[in-house]
Amino acid sequence: FLFLIKHLLILREQIAPFDIDFAVTEKTLDFTMMINSFSQLLRGQTSVLSFNNYNTLLNFVWHAAPRIIDSYLDSKKDLEKEFKSACESFIAYITRATVGGLAELLSRVRAWDVWSRL
Questions:
Q1: CA-based nearest residue to 75, from 1, 4, 14
Q2: Which of 18, 41, 80, 112 has the fewest CB atoms lying closer than 10 Å?
Q3: Burial of 64 (0-12, 13-18, 19+ CB in 10 A)
Q4: pLDDT digits (tens, 9 = 90+) for 29-79
Q5: What pTM value is reported for the model?
Q6: Which residues are paired to 25 by β-bridges?
Q7: pLDDT at residue 3 in the model
Q8: Which residues pair with 23 in a beta bridge?
Q9: CA dist., res. 10 & res. 1, Å (int)
């Protein structure tokens, strides 16, 4: 944990002097609707030539176009989130390591106290 925290701090200190926007908008194509429409077309669940709402060919043409998905990625926020997570994991680990034995000792003392009163 300390290795990760140290290097995340170094990285944060190195990018801090630069007042640059580290956010990027990434565009991707989603072909899931196209795949689903194509599989329905191949399965032939309904008639290809029918002129109603369940026309497989019409459904394929209508839904086959891929969707464009915009993803906003902010490297600075991702770095801060990773740093916070590493610090919280380290704190939890150290707390368990130091207080874990104390909690076990307290439970034994309580059990002995209850037993001695009988």
A1: 14
A2: 18
A3: middle
A4: 888 877 777 776 677 655 556 566 666 666 667 777 778 888 888 877 888
A5: 0.47
A6: 72
A7: 82
A8: 74
A9: 14
> In the prediction, which pLDDT does 102 show?
84
**Structure tokens belonging to residue 14:** 């190195």
| Vertex 117: Cα angle to 116 and 118 (nearest 5) | 90
Which residues partner with 70 through β-bridges?
27
Calculated CA dihedral for residues 56, 62, 65, 71, nearest 10 degrees? -120
pLDDT of residue 101: 81
Taking alpha carbons only, the member of 25, 64, 26, 24 closest to residue 42 is 64
Q: How far are the Cα atoms of 13, 15, 35, 81 from residue 6, in angstroms, in the given order? A: 11, 15, 45, 15
Give 105-111 contacts, CB < 8 A, sequence gap 24+. Answer: none
- What pLDDT does residue 81 have? 87
* Helix residue spans in 21-74 (DSSP H): 32-43, 56-63
Query: In the structure encoding, which two tokens stand for residue 17, read together?
Result: 């002097």
